[in-house]
Amino acid sequence: MSYAMRKRVLVTGGAGFLGSHLCERLLANGHDVLCVDNFFTGTKDNIAHLLANPYFELLRHDVTFPLYLEVDEIYNLACPASPIHYQFDPVQTTKTSVHGAINMLGLAKRVKAKILQASTSEVYGDPSVHPQPEHYWGNVNPIGQRACYDEGKRCAETLFFDYRRQHGLIVKVARIFNTYGPRMHPNDGRVVSNFIMQALENRPITLYGEGTQTRSFCYVNDLIDGLLRLMNSADELAGPVNLGNPWQCTMIELAQAILDLTGSRSALVHAPLPPDDPQQRRPDIALARERLDWEPRVPLHEGLQSTIAYFEQLLRRR
Ligand code: NAD
Ligand code: UDP
Ligand code: UDP
């Protein structure tokens, strides 16, 4: 790639699950990548293979504090994403979303960088509309245990759109739905990691409630492709844009697929359904299809195979 095309790209939360895949893809596309992370949920293992690359830099930093750098693009992913992690220190979670967004927007404003926010389907809360289009305003409890994450992300979206209106920044907001793949946390309590770990260790698979609730899971490579397309879309497309897989499956079907692929002897057991557990969550991706020409391509079985291989390797290392 010519020097003129090589961009300096900042990825906050770059040592996390999605961030590490994004850093990898940006380097493969010929860019200069600066990964910023405070290692709250991310690990050096996720990016160890990138450290030898001269176009990759790693900075330990907490985004709730100001950061002065010169970059062309910013992907703001820093934020714990699973309930176990974001409820560990809820005040810090809100600070990360809100102060983190203010600092990264301030940075983008000063250096005139384009900036993308990793928002979430959780801004829709417990939705009363299925599937969820971007113009649905959501149904979020502002004082509940999930609010530090949901409301923090909603406020970050507000800041992105106010910096766009008030300061003319080029902003991009992606609303990411359930994503899975290698480098997910084995102990984050999410269904894909729980079921795979349980299957590989021949422990019972815990179906919460009847197991008839549905989710739609997007494989990480597809998701990263969507983030890159959004960042590179026309300047006037700020979003928000839903990125996720509209194909739904029940938790029983997911468990069965993982049992088949692992050949596990695990039994299926039922456990109580957590409070406020949505019966279904599914993105409407018409906007991403139309404006980004994007839709997920990796079938669940294929994505699960790579994810299982990753967890097998983790277990061998223990
Ligand atoms: P992750 O926990 O693996 O990654 C988050 C990263 O941010 C970690 O490396 C963590 O150490 C870092 N971090 C946290 N607080 C920080 C701070 N104050 N300063 C600097 N770094 C900090 O989670 P992920 O699944 O990769 O999620 C990445 C982003 O995507 C998050 O913003 C999350 O809200 C969003 N998202 C993810 C999903 C999903 O299904 N994985 C769905 C919706 C939205
Ligand atoms: N900021 C930063 N890096 C920069 C520029 C700004 O971290 O390169 C932070 C700075 O701490 C500030 C915040 O971003 O508090 C918002 O910046 P902005 O210029 O919008 O507002 P102000 O400086 O007026 O508070
Ligand atoms: N779930 C389950 N067993 C588990 C973990 C989760 O049946 O061991 C269910 C959970 O009740 C929910 C679905 O799987 O209905 C997805 O849960 P996850 O926490 O992964 O994501 P979210 O609820 O945020 O979509």
Concise structural overview:
The protein is of the alpha/beta class and 318 residues long. It has nine helices and 13 strands.
SSE series: EHEEEHHEHEEHEEEHEEHEHH
Report strand %: 15-25%
Biggest beta sheet attributes: 7 strands, parallel
Heterogens: nicotinamide-adenine-dinucleotide, uridine-5'-diphosphate
Structural class: alpha/beta
CATH class of the domain at 8-179 and 219-245 and 282-297: Alpha Beta
Overall mean pLDDT stands at 96
- Unreliable spans are none
- The 3D shape can be described as globular
CATH H level of the domain at 8-179 and 219-245 and 282-297: which superfamily? NAD(P)-binding Rossmann-like Domain
- Annotated CATH architecture of the domain at 8-179 and 219-245 and 282-297: 3-Layer(aba) Sandwich
| Secondary structure: number of strands | 13
What gyration radius follows from the Cα positions, in whole Å? 19 Å
Explain this structure:
The protein is of the alpha/beta class and 318 residues long. It has a domain at 8-179 and 219-245 and 282-297: NAD(P)-binding Rossmann-like Domain (Rossmann fold), CATH 3.40.50.720. The protein is built from nine helices and 13 strands. The longest helix is centred in the first third of the chain and has 22 residues, at 90-111. The radius of gyration is 19 Å and the shape is globular. The protein binds nicotinamide-adenine-dinucleotide (NAD) and uridine-5'-diphosphate (2 copies). One uridine-5'-diphosphate is lined by residues 66-68, 102-103, 106-107, 109-110. One of its GO terms (cellular component) is cytoplasm. Residues 9-244 form the NAD-dependent epimerase/dehydratase domain. Pfam families: Epimerase. It is found in: Cytoplasm.
